[in-house]
Specification:
2 copies of one chain form a homodimer.
Chain A (H helix, E strand, L loop, with lengths): L3 H8 L3 H9 L6 H14 L5 H8 L4 E6 L7 H17 L3 E6 L4 H9 L5 E4 L9 H7 L3 E4 L9 E5 L1 H14 L4 E5 L3 H6 L3 H16 L2 E5 L5 H14 L5 E4 L5 H10 L9 E5 L2 H5 L6 E3 L3 H16 L7 E4 L3 E2 L7 H7 L8 H4 L4
Parallel strand pairs in A: 1-2, 1-3, 3-4, 4-5, 5-11, 6-7, 6-8, 8-9, 9-10
Antiparallel strand pairs in A: 10-12
Helix pairs in contact in A: 1-2, 1-3, 5-14, 6-7, 8-10, 11-12
Chain B binds a DNA duplex (16 and 16 nucleotides) through helix 2 and helix 4.
Chain lengths: 355, 355
DNA sequence: GTGAAAGCGCTAACAG
DNA sequence: CTGTTAGCGCTTTCAC
C-alpha cells in the first residue's frame, strides 16, 4: 500500500507538504507541487479514507436513506439515487446506501459512528419517525419530500399543487369543462406522504377558479382496479371529457380500457398524467404529462447538502416548478363533440375478455 | 462525542477490554462484560468508523457498482440494490453506492483508498472493462451477471438457458408446436450482456429436442415496436400459438395488441414472460412467467462476498435455477383449436386507432 | 482475565 | 513557502 509518507519520500518533501498539495489549504511553489503530483501519479497513491476521516473528522460520505418498500415509484427512486450518487461524486463525495429498515436507529448509528458527514432522506412521510432523531443531531440533512413540520429542515420536492393546477389549466385551455382525476391507491393516501394531497389541492382550487367540474377517485394500480374506478366515474359523471392520472401503474390499463370501450384518445377523451417522462412517453398513446423531475431532485438535494457542509446554512423548502409536456393524448374538446355526442356502446365481445 | 476511552473510564476498565468486549476476540468475565455493556448503553457509544478502519484495515463497507443507464431493468436493479443493502447490514456491513460512470477508475479508487473491503458489480457485460482492474487487485468481488471469461471471479446470475428451456417445456406440455419469442431490443444484444443470448440458446436447444418450431425476433419495448414485431411474426408464421416474451416493456403492449386483434389470451394464444414477478402478476392478463430472482441474487452476492472476506475463498459461478409460476396467460392448445382454427380477422375499426 | 502502549495514515497546528 | 510533530479513536501485540 502506498502511503502519504511514501509519496513524500519519493518527492523529497515532508509529508505535510504532500497533504497540502492534496488539500490546497496552503500555497505551494509550482516546482514542488509538480514534483509531488508526479510522485503521486507514478506511485499510484490514493489517500486512505479511514485515516483521513479520523484525522479530519470528515468522511466525505453522504448517507442516502431509501425506503424499503420496493413496490412504489421504483423507477423514480432509482433515478434519484443515481442522480444523487453521480452529483455527489462531482463534489468529491461518495454515497452510502442505507435502507429504511433500521428506521430512526440508522440516523443515530450513522451519526454516532461518523460514517457520513450528511444525510439525504427519500420518501419522507408527513409524520416521519426519522425526523426527531435527525433534528436532535443537528446534522446537515436534506429531505426529498415534504413532512408536515419543516422547521429546521431542508426539503426538496416537486410543487405538486402547482402541478395539479397546471393540468387543469391545460385542459381548461382546450375547452374541457368536466374532468376526472384517477388518483393513487388508497394506501398511499393513508400513508400520508403528502404529495397526493397536495396535488389534489392544486387540482381542486384551480378547478374551482376556472369553474370546471372535477371528480377525484383513488385507484389501485391493477387492471381490475382501474376498470372498476373507470366504470364508477362514468356512472357518476357521464359527461366527463378528460382524465388526469396520478398513478404510474394506472396509465397503461386506463388507455387499454378506453380503447376497448371505443373511446379514442384524444379524439373522444383526453388523458394526462403526472408521472416520470419515460412512463408518459412510452405509453401506447404518448401522454401529455407533468413530469416528476427525479434527476433534478437528486441533484438539488446533493447541492443543498454540500452547501450546508461548507457552512452556508440555509434551511429552506424548495418546491421545483412543474413542467408540462404536450404529447398526443390531449386535444381540444371540439374534436370530441364532432365525433359523437355520447361515446359508442361497448361491444358485447369485449365484455368476455378478462378485466 | 463518546469514545472508547470514555466507555473504559465509565466502566472502570482499560480501553483494550472495551475493545475486546466489542469484538469478542478474547474471553471476558461475565461481570466486566456486563459493566462495559451497561456503560456503552448509557453513554450511547458508537465506535468511530474511520478510526476502526484505520486500525483494523477493514472498513466494513461493501461497494456496489450500479450501471449508469437508468433505462433498463430499473425495477430489477433497485430490487437487487435494496436486497444487497439489507443483507449486508445483517452481516455488519454498510453499502457504498458507486455509479458506473467512473468505470474501471472507480475500482482502483475504491481499492486504493480502502474505502470498501469488497465489491459487488451489477450489470456485467461479456467484455467488461472493469474486470481487468478487478482481477489485478485480487479483491474480494462478486459479479451479478456473467462475463465471457469468468476465471478467478465469482458470479451469480439466473440460469437463463434453463429459464428458456423451462418456458419451452411448459408450452410443449400444453400441446403447442409452433412458438414465437419476442426478445430484447437489438441494442441489448449489441451490448452483449450475455443473458439474452443464453436465454435464446436454452429456448432453441429445448425446442429442437422437443421438435417445436421456434421463431425469435428482437423487439423494441415501445408500443409501435411491439406492433411491428408482432405483425412480422404473424406474417412469417401464421400458425404460431404461443409467445414467450423476454422484454419487460413489451408485455403490456403485446397483450393490448392481441386484445385489439381479437386474439383472446389464453384461449386463442398463450403468452409467457421472463420478467420480475411483479410485472407478470400485474399485467392485464396475469402472466405465466419465469421470474428474475432479483432479491436472491442480491442476497447471494453479499453472502458470497462476506464468505470471501472471512477467508473461505471460492471463486464459483452460481446460476440460480429458474422457477416457473403458472398464472392465467397460458392454456392447452386444444382450447384454441376448439374456438377457431384461424384467428378472426382484425376489425377495420381498430386499424384507425393509434398504434 | 485484564492492562499498557505502540502504531494505523493522515491533518493541522506550530515553528521557522 | 516548507518541515516537525502531536494527536484523531481504535486494534492488537506484549506483558502480567
Amino acid at each position: 500500500m502506498v502511503t502519504l509518507a511514501d509519496v513524500a519520500k519519493h518527492a523529497g518533501v515532508s509529508s505535510s507538504t504532500v497533504s497540502y498539495v492534496l488539500s490546497g489549504k496552503r500555497s505551494i511553489s509550482a516546482s514542488t507541487r509538480e514534483r509531488v503530483e508526479h510522485s503521486i501519479a507514478t506511485l499510484g497513491y490514493h489517500p486512505n479514507a479511514g485515516a483521513r476521516a479520523l484525522a479530519s473528522n470528515r468522511s466525505n460520505i453522504i448517507a442516502l436513506m431509501v425506503p424499503l418498500r420496493t413496490d412504489m415509484y421504483v423507477p423514480v427512486m432509482m433515478e434519484i439515487a443515481i442522480a444523487v450518487a453521480t452529483t455527489a461524486r462531482t463534489h468529491g463525495y461518495d454515497v452510502l446506501l442505507v435502507t429504511g429498515e433500521e428506521g430512526p436507529a440508522a440516523v443515530r448509528r450513522i451519526e454516532g459512528s461518523a460514517l457520513a458527514d450528511a444525510m439525504i432522506l427519500m420518501d419522507v412521510e408527513l409524520q416521519d419517525d426519522r425526523l426527531p432523531a435527525l433534528r436532535q443531531t443537528g446534522w446537515p440533512a436534506v429531505l426529498i419530500g415534504l413532512p408536515a413540520d419543516t422547521t429546521g429542515l431542508s426539503c426538496v420536492d416537486l410543487d405538486f399543487a402547482a402541478a395539479g393546477a397546471l393540468c387543469v389549466d391545460h385542459l381548461a385551455g382546450l375547452g374541457h369543462r368536466e374532468i376526472a382525476v384517477i388518483g393513487e391507491a388508497p394506501a398511499v393516501y393513508e400513508r400520508r406522504t403528502g404529495f397526493a394531497e397536495r396535488t389534489l389541492t392544486g387540482l381542486r382550487d384551480r378547478s374551482r377558479e376556472l369553474g370546471l367540474r372535477m371528480l377525484h377517485r383513488p385507484c389501485e394500480g391493477s387492471y381490475a382496479g382501474v376498470a372498476a374506478t373507470l366504470a364508477r366515474i362514468y356512472e357518476e359523471r357521464p359527461g366527463v371529457t378528460a382524465f388526469i392520472v396520478q398513478n404510474e401503474a394506472a396509465t397503461d390499463p386506463l388507455l387499454a380500457l378506453l380503447r376497448q370501450q371505443r373511446r379514442a384518445v384524444p379524439e373522444d377523451v383526453s388523458v394526462m398524467a403526472i408521472c416520470p417522462d419515460q412512463v408518459a412517453a412510452h405509453a401506447s398513446v404518448p401522454l401529455t404529462s407533468v413530469a416528476v423531475p427525479a434527476q433534478e431532485m437528486g441533484r438539488y438535494a446533493v447541492e443543498q447538502v454540500v452547501a450546508k457542509l461548507k457552512g452556508r446554512r440555509s434551511d429552506e423548502v424548495v418546491l421545483l416548478p412543474p413542467e408540462l409536456t404536450v404529447r398526443e393524448s390531449t386535444a381540444a374538446l371540439g374534436t370530441a363533440a364532432q365525433r359523437s355526442a355520447s361515446p359508442p356502446p361497448v361491444p358485447g365481445n369485449d365484455a368476455a375478455l378478462p378485466a
